[in-house]
Write a structure and sequence with these properties.
- This protein has 254 residues and is α/β, with parallel strands linked by helices.
- The radius of gyration is 18 Å and the shape is globular.
- The protein starts with a helix and ends with a strand.
């Protein structure tokens, strides 16, 4: 009986009654480490997804100066997004590595939410670690934490006309209170999942588009590394999703 009680709860299917999503992350490649498989499945079904990146990832490659790295990583991100059916990719131009949680970041994300009017907001793990429920694991980056937290808060900011009223007076962006869910990818406490099978191969190709980054990240063959990581990540969720490999999210309802 104790063992049964200790088993994690089954993962619920992701909500399906939506048409538009906005994915908000810190860097190029953030969405490709897991989330892109679900996005490929969604765009195949006719849903619209827009990417919003806080930075251009210019501090991510030690051997390439930021002024050269930024346009390279932007181009790789656009190519990567196209593989999974996303044509709209926007950048906020915060400095990579030193993004701070605060009003400016909340305002910029809220503005994007008002522009694109999504029902689903997607972001990346905003907690201190990538570890398990018992703690430990790898320390998360300041950029991920700042952008993830700001995205969660901006979902509410976007719907309140008295928070950032300048978005109305200066940009003509009326409040949008239509965000129904915020889905956090890379969470150690996921609640929902999407079958990884339909989008897995395209998610692999999507991550492979980040050639310059992956080449310095691992000594493995790039495709072997990418396939192993994404397949392993999807397989980890299978016991909680009816035996099917899955892309997982922690979903907050609004």
């Amino acid at each position: 009986m104790t063992e049964q009680l200790d088993q994690p709860a089954p993962l619920e299917p992701m909500p399906a009654d939506w048409q538009r999503a906005l994915a908000v992350v810190a860097h190029p490649d953030d969405l490709e480490y897991g989330g892109a498989g679900a996005i490929a499945h969604w765009t195949d079904g006719g849903r619209e997804v827009v990417y919003l990146l806080a930075t251009r990832g210019e501090a991510g490659i030690d051997t390439i100066p930021p002024e050269e790295c930024a346009p390279l990583r932007e181009a790789e991100q656009r190519a990567s997004a196209a593989v999974v059916g996303v044509s709209a990719v926007e950048f906020l131009d915060y400095r990579d590595g030193v993004v701070e949680y605060g009003l400016d970041l909340r305002r910029d994300i809220a503005a994007a939410i008002r522009r694109h009017r999504p029902e689903l907001l997607i972001t990346l793990n905003h907690r201190d670690t990538w570890g398990g429920q018992g703690g430990g694991g790898n320390w998360n980056t300041p950029d991920h934490k700042a952008v993830g937290r700001a995205a969660l808060d901006a979902a509410a900011d976007a719907g309140n006309r008295w928070i950032f009223p300048e978005l109305i007076s200066e940009q003509g962006l009326e409040p949008w209170n239509g965000v129904r869910w915020v889905a956090v990818a890379g969470s150690s406490t996921p609640t929902h999942a999407v079958d990884a099978g339909p989008g897995l191969e395209r998610s692999i190709k999507s991550l492979m588009e980040h050639k310059a980054y992956i080449e310095v990240l691992t000594d493995q063959d790039p495709e072997e590394y990418v396939r192993g990581f994404l397949t392993g990540y999807a397989q980890q969720a299978a016991p909680r999703f009816g035996g099917r490999p899955a892309v997982t999210f922690e979903v907050f309802s609004r």
